[in-house]
Amino acid sequence: MELPQNKRSWIASSRARNLPNLVLIFHRARFRRPTRPTANLCATRSRTFSHQAPLAGRFLEGTQIRQRASGSELFLLLNKRGLIRHAAFESKGELETALLEAFCRLIEGLSLQEASDHGVLRLEYKLRNPAVELGIPGIVTPENSDPMFQVPQTLIRAAYSEYKKDHTSGRNYWTDKISREWLSLTPAERMEQLQTATEHFRTLEGLAADALRVVNMQHETRVIVDAPKHSDALLRLEAYLRQTLEPQLEVLLAERQDTNKPRENNAKAKDLSG
What we know:
Elements: E1 12-13, E2 41-42, E3 63-69, E4 72-78, E5 84-90, H1 94-107, H2 112-127, H3 142-145, H4 150-164, H5 180-183, H6 187-205, E6 213-218, E7 222-226, H7 234-244, E8 250-253, H8 261-273
Parallel strand pairs: 7-8
Antiparallel strand pairs: 1-2, 3-4, 4-5, 6-7
Helix pairs in contact: 1-2, 2-4, 6-7
C-alpha cells in the first residue's frame, strides 16, 4: 500500500549495507525532489524489524542501559570497553519504528561515546538522498535537517549521560575501519566502481564527461580526481562516493602542471631567489 502524498517519504540508498529499505522519511517542503529516479535509490517498505524488542534474556554479560523518550525506548548492552554489543528498541509510531530500527543497526559495534557524539549524524547521512538538494545553509546537522531525529538523539544522549555516572570518559578518538567489502576488492575492481559511480554523479550534476575524471587511487581510500573547471564539485562527489561505495573514501584534486613554460620557469626562479 502506498503512503499518501502528505506523509514524509524516506528514500534510503540501496548501498547503505547496514540499513533496511525504508519508506517514511525526509522529503519535507524545503527539500527539492529529484527530476528523475536514480539507480541507487529504493523506496520499499521494510517488513522485518529485527531490533524491535527489549534485550532478550540471553544477553546477560555487560552493562545494560535503558532510556525512554517521547513514547519510545532504547535498550543497550555494552561490553567492558563501552562498545555497543546489542541495541534494541520499542516504539509504536510508524516513522519512529523505521527510524529506530535503522539507528540500532547503525550503532552496534560503535562505542557509546561515538554513538552519542555522531550516531544520529551518521543516520541522517546514511539515509540522505544524494540526488536531492537539502537547501540548508551551512553545516547539515540532525537538528536542522528534520525534527524526526530528535527522538534517537535524545535517547542516545541520555544513555551516554547515564553511562558516565559510573564510568570515566575523555576525548572521543573513535576512527572507523575500512569495510571488509571494499578491502576484498582488487585495485582494478575499486577503480572500476569509482569510475562507474563518478559517471553516475556527473549525470546527476549535469556535468560533461570530461568535467570530473578519476585518474588514480592511493592506498585503499584516497581517490585522485582531475577536475579542470569543476573543483567546487569535489566535496559533493566525495559525499556521493562515501554514501554509495565506501564511507572512508577521500577525494583529492590531481595536481596539474603549468603548460606555460616561461611562467613555470619564472616561478621556479622566484623560489630559488627567495
